[in-house]
Design brief:
CATH class: Alpha Beta
CATH topology: Rossmann fold
Order of helices and strands: EEHEHEHEHEHEHEHEHH
Helix content: 40-55%
Strand content: 5-15%
Largest sheet: 7 strands, parallel
Number of domains: 1
Radius of gyration: 21 Å
Shape: globular
Length: about 280
């Protein structure tokens, strides 16, 4: 609604109040709700969130490309999802990632890439293991950079496409036993924010996915009760809902992630005390 006011001198001033509100609450990305005929590459999709998301996208008519180290798991997926394409690779292998991307481009434009490869082992500073630290870095972060190197020129040239990075609420702030894992997920969050800033005027969408606890092979090793634990299928539905609403950050389940977001606001002294109180560490 346009609001008009008159000054004592008769001059009219116009404000676009509702337009400003709409702009403030507008989606940060173009909403994605129609997947029929669109192509999606999921890297790290042999199990868990990636596999479940690939299955939902396939059911909605997307042409799905799946990559992971587990070739047998990818073949099993393809056998039950006609038209899906398996491209086995290790995301740490820059050459293999580029070759897979070229295979996809040869078949047609790529509309969306989802980096969901992940590695997790508990670690505390009192048991520092450099090899484990670097393995987390290579799989969780450097692998994402390899994928970006392969797809960004394609997206920028087309001025279209969407990049989604699967991070974690473990990247919000420092947590016990997350010395190797947490920093790599924090890096993905910052990477996604910077990509968004750089690409929003180019026509390329960017989203960061920050799950809480999801029932996957990675979380199966946890020896503690995981609050608000959900299935990969529930996670996949949350991801598609976030894309449909044009969100930048897609975090779930909200009954847990909202609490984690509140912790982000605490000053360090209070934050450290709360974490010790609830974890005992």
């Amino acid at each position: 609604m346009i609001k008009t006011a008159f000054s004592p001198h008769g001059a009219a001033t116009v404000s676009y109040e509702n337009h400003s509100k709409r702009r403030w609450f507008a989606p940060l990305n173009p909403p994605q709700s129609e997947w029929q005929g669109r192509s999606v590459w999921l890297v790290g999709a042999s199990t868990g969130i990636g596999r479940a998301t690939a299955s939902v996208l396939h059911a909605q008519g997307a042409r799905v490309y799946l990559s992971a180290r587990g070739a047998a798991a990818l073949d099993d997926f393809v056998a039950t999802h006609p038209g899906a394409v398996a491209l086995p690779l290790d995301a740490r292998d820059h050459g293999a990632v580029r070759a897979a991307a070229q295979t996809i481009f040869a078949a047609g434009p790529l509309d969306c890439v989802v980096y969901c490869a992940g590695y997790y082992r508990e670690q505390r500073a009192t048991e520092f293991d450099l090899s484990e630290m670097l393995k987390h870095e290579q799989i969780n972060y450097v692998g994402a950079l390899n994928v970006l190197d392969a797809v960004l020129p394609h997206f920028v040239l087309r001025q279209a496409g969407h990049i989604s990075l699967v991070s974690s609420v473990a990247g919000y702030r420092g947590l016990p036993k997350s010395l190797a894992y947490g920093p790599t997920k924090a890096a993905l969050i910052t990477l996604g924010e910077t990509l968004y800033v750089d690409l929003r005027d180019v026509g390329v969408g960017v989203s960061v996915i920050s799950p809480g606890f999801v029932e996957t092979p990675l979380t199966a090793q946890n020896q503690f009760r995981m609050p608000a634990l959900i299935t990969p299928e529930q996670a996949a539905q949350e991801i598609l809902a976030g894309w449909r609403r044009g969100r930048f950050e897609i975090h779930f389940p909200r009954r847990f992630t909202r609490w984690m977001k509140t912790l982000q606001l605490l000053p360090h002294r209070l934050y450290f005390a709360v974490i010790r109180r609830f974890t005992g560490l």
